[in-house]
Amino acid sequence: MIKAGALFYAIVLSLVIAIMTSSVMLFGYASRSSSDLHKAELRVLENAESGIQLLKSGELKLQFGEKTKVDLFGEETDSVELLVRSWGGFRLASSTAFFRSTSYKITALIGTRSDTGSVSLYLTDKDKPLAVCGRTVINGSAMLPKAGIKRAYIEGQNFVGSEFVHGQISQSARKLPEFDRSLKKEIEALLAGHQFSVDDSILDVSGSLEATIENNFDNKTILIRSPGNFLIGPGKLKGNIGIVSSGTMIVGNDVVLEDVILVAPKILFKKGVHGSFQAFASDSIILEEDVVLDYPSVLGLVQTKVMKSGILISKNDSVSGTVFSIRKDDLTASSCIRLNKESFIYGQVYTNGWADVQGTIYGSLYCDAIQLKTPSSVYENHLLNAVIDGVKLSSHYTGVALEDRSRGTEIVKYLK
Amino acid sequence: MKLEGGTIIESLVAMVILVVALGTATMIYTNVLDSDKQAKELKAWSLVQEELSEMLNQNRFIDQERSKDGLYLSIAFANYALASDVTQISWIVKDENEIIVLKGDRLLYNR
To answer: Most B CBs within 10 Å: which of A57, A61, A72, as the mutation test of the B interface?
Structure first.
């Protein structure tokens, strides 16, 4: 006969076994849950990226600033919420994917791809030839006036190159390819103070701004307004921030600016400024020496009054991105872009006024006229020691949609 | 020979232990099978990513089938219904028994 004490041993043993087996089961359950979560995360990541691809297309005709829900594959299991709005010269696109309790959001700046083999130099036909002298280099195709291109001798320098243009030459039209109307409207709205929403967080300051502010693009835009002349720095301003001044805005070299938008009639960048941002003015943008603006920077000037206006790029400045200067349709005064010696632009340059290029452009220059100002004189349609090289611009370069032609779009930058 | 019977409590406890032991064994067995499925899914995922990145790098947008480690991958490209310049990439990975291990879709702007 089994002794009564055996029951006690059996229960203790079964408890030990139960604990061990339930541990194994718990581990299995945790592992399966983690695997399911991982699968869900991969799925929302894929779907959010698909949403961004859809936003690059632009065929959905989404209303700017309005969230739209899209069932990606028609199975009601893969939904994304899409939002697109303007952010300076680019489109700000965000795609949020949901699956069960998991969600993932991607925010990116979208721009326009540069055409492979696109024009390096477009000079409007005003019945005057282009004259080149010194060590001027034009690499890539050029669209020039019917009068063509010729050698010139100025400032004691003759043209020393082997060919005027290392690429195909075609005849330009009497009018510059039209600047993208919607972009122009958006910049005009920015300059008139209409583009930022009344729902944005508004911070009124005067005199100067010394602050460190980082604002995620998921949040409302922080709009910093100043009624008069305004000095920015020292500090750091990064992300979803717009800075608007009704006077002259001075950017010190002790401030770090990233992804922000600056708007003022006049903007002055002090010597040594380094950052990556978009700046829009109606009167002038002046870069002192040694300013470095990283990709994707935009310097845009839309002239709104009859006055001399322009963008000045000084010695040892480097701008990676887009530089444009245009006037309103009803104005006749001309706007300009001046690149001083030893200045460098990697990207697009467009002006429906005149350009004075004494530095280097790796990319394209579209201009109505060229003007060369030397200590002794001013020459029309002359280039002296200028380098305009469209071949050196990467085929992957993505910039601002400046012209009315719709090219493919591409991600400029992923944002947080 | 005469066997002595246990008490009713002893019999009940023994039955409960047996049921719990059998139940646990079944659950562990199912879990083990599931973990094999998870491993297969991970393998399938990595196969899909490998193939897609290769195809996208080479701009090779044609339907394709491939097998590796007992998994059979087929990738198909189709025009996306909501936008003509977007391609829908669909993939299905099956195992040797023709059971679907993984399926998914992705959109690609193709202009």
So the answer is: A57
